[in-house]
Amino acid sequence: MPINYIDELNEIQYEAVVYNEGPSLVIAGAGSGKTRVLTYKIAYLLENGYAPWNILALTFTNKAAREMKERIAGMVSEKRAQALFMGTFHSLFSRILHVEAAYLGFNPQFTIYDTADTKSLLRSISKEMGLDEKIYKTGAVQSRISRAKNRLILPSVYASNKDIYESDCRAKMSAISDIYLQYWNRCRQANAMDFDDLLFYTFILFRDFPDVLSRYQEQFRYVLVDEYQDTNFAQHSIIFQLVKERQRICVVGDDAQSIYSFRGADIDNILRFSEIYSNTRLFKLEQNYRSTQTIVQAANSLIKKNQRQIYKEVFSKKDPGDPLVVFQAYSDTEEGEMVANKITELHQEEKYSYTDFTILYRTNAQSRVFEEALRRHGILYRIYGGLSFYQRKEIKDVIAYFRLVVNPNDEEAFKRIVNYPARNIGEVTVAKILTSARNNEVNLWEILCKPLTYELPISKNTSAKLQNFCELIESFRINVREKNAYEMSVDIIRRSGIMNDVYSDNLPENRDRKENMEELINGIHDFCSIRQEEESHPPVLLADFLSEIALLTDQDTDNNEGERVSLMTVHAAKGLEFSNVFIVGMEEGLFPNFMVGESAQALEEERRLFYVAITRAKVHCFLSYARIRFRYGSTEFANPSRFLHDVDVCFLKLWRNTEYYTDEISTRIRRDKYVKKEQTFPDTSKKIIKENSLTASSLANTANTTVKTGQTVEHERFGIGEVLKIEGEDESIKVTILFKNVGNKQLLLRFAKLKVVE
DNA sequence: CCGATACGCATTTTT
DNA sequence: TGCGTATCGG
């Protein structure tokens, strides 16, 4: 059945689909049918002279690629859809790199280091260099190096760049460039690439080997990029190399939804696309097909507060709909209760399925109170994100064996399993091996096999143990290129002693481990049979399995088991939609998160994140905040998020119009919304008492407690402390207390249960 | 080399 | 609070 492009697309969507003569930028507002444009465009290309393998389509996640492929399969044919080069940057480029590895001095069996491997290696390096780990925190070091790689800065360039050096010095980490160089070499020595390397080396491959580049230019005659606002400089540069000649490129994205800069994404890529590709045709998809008018307008009013953006006016032709509802709760626990109640109510009275609800939070740690509340209410839920299957300890151990068998120079895999299961090869011995490998500039495996040749200072006994380990790995290696992955893995798990270790006892806490192990084996079995059918090339190797899972995440295993409320971070919600969305924890310090600090850019990104959250909602959107919150083991005072002020109040309403709400935002909503309604309580925001001011309120008086600044008080959890500061009025009196044991705390007097000691 | 305890420190996350 | 790493004693 032919596709009727005109009827099935709106005017601008259609224009964007059929324009393929030069570079195009599709700015796709939230819910404006972005995926629709991409799928129809690819179908259109396929019907107009492009073979599937001539089309390179890059997506942000594997899941997005898979879903798009399915949709295209329905439009053209399964076979042609399968032949498309569609996937994430990382997965497609890793495929290319596996083929072209030799150009870059890598072995095709190279390992892909995940973030944990990267951090572990960086920690070792910092230690070896004798750097203070209090200053050189692994996370910080990793993110600086990652940022450099995303900007295509080689270690040598890094070391000689003055700006970078000064920046590192400011962060008191002047040795980063040394760590970077060391890390770079160690990865090469281990025949390993990290996630950033997959991009960096692809860039280098294309830059340094023109014949290789032209081969791929020849193949990828049309390039499409989804979620362009979240691409980084390396990705931009690779794409630029590929399309330089033909300029057949279409990128799709929404600058208002750029939320991954912490991972190197550069919003300038989309903002400046038209400058880089002259003659760019710009298409703006502004009609939102997802949400009510109110939701769209509320989101617009919010995003207007950002400076840097491409002008657009997103609109909806749906019902005007209800205002966004603002909830205030005493505490995080009550917030959970309120949300659960509301879900129950909407489920029963408006017949929404539980799958129509999502609870979105800024940080994963917030999920717990909602889990508990939902459980109390007997509502089934599903949490997205968190630890992925392949990140679990026991799974990583097994995978490390696979990795070492496929690539015996994989340092991180080696360190992980050389003494698991315990075979009495300790840290000291491992350190000797690594040092020797570095000093002699030979591979790990070389030392491991012939420790005596390199004069390792080890005992006979240790040497024997090493030899056993070596022979074990070697015995697996003999078969690794012939036997299929399933047989290999069973063999490895048995003979390595893992099986013994996991099954030796019947402790209940080991049950999960066993189940996970079995799931892994079953997974490998399935992988082999599916691959075998798909590509009918014999046999499916362990290496194939490894490259598959290195770039796979839990996001990909979406089991839609039954009617469940979804819980996830706002980041994880990108691209999804729900009838009813609860955005929780709308508090200063949480959302926007305190980590953004002073940076205006970072604040804008948080605002975009809030924009993403709101625009997930089709019908109802609820915003909630709590006045006190349990965090890091203590109860803390919280203020409503400034973002609540950024949404035009005419799109907001309070859940219950009671006196209960006394903060500024509530007062504003009430005043502006219900005009001239009798104000039964004062606008407390005006009366916040500045520090040290000696007024009546420095002597706070509530039903059960009276405290003065300077007094010594006792708290049932925090113990003895001194009152430093008192601010606020009546219900919301806040006291700052310096506790002897736990330091400074801000508490709501109403809840603090203080006892005056002196 | 291993286990137990102490300490310190906390986003977001896909690849 | 709760996890992951550091350190110490056996």
Assigned CATH architecture of the largest domain = 3-Layer(aba) Sandwich
What can be said about the biggest beta sheet? Answer: 8 strands, mixed
Radius of gyration: 29 Å
Low-confidence stretches: 674-704
Note the topology.
Blueprint: H1 5-8, H2 11-18, E1 24-28, H3 34-47, E2 55-59, H4 62-75, H5 78-82, E3 85-88, H6 89-100, E4 111-113, H7 115-128, H8 138-150, H9 155-160, H10 162-170, H11 176-189, E5 192-194, H12 195-208, H13 210-219, E6 222-225, H14 233-243, E7 249-253, H15 268-271, H16 273-276, E8 281-285, E9 287-288, H17 293-303, E10 315-316, E11 324-331, H18 332-349, E12 357-361, H19 367-376, E13 381-383, H20 393-406, H21 411-417, H22 427-440, H23 444-449, H24 460-477, H25 485-496, H26 498-503, H27 511-535, H28 542-550, E14 565-569, E15 578-583, H29 600-614, E16 617-631, E17 634-637, H30 643-646, E18 652-654, H31 664-673, E19 699-701, E20 706-708, E21 712-715, E22 719-727, E23 734-739, E24 743-748, H32 749-752, E25 754-756
Parallel strand pairs: 1-7, 1-8, 2-3, 2-6, 4-5, 6-7, 9-10, 11-16, 11-18, 12-14, 12-15, 13-14, 15-16
Antiparallel strand pairs: 16-17, 19-20, 21-22, 21-25, 22-23, 23-24
Helix pairs in contact: 2-3, 3-4, 6-12, 7-8, 7-11, 12-13, 12-14, 17-29, 18-19, 20-21, 20-24, 25-27, 25-28
The chain binds a DNA duplex (15 and 10 nucleotides) through helix 6, helix 12 and helix 29.
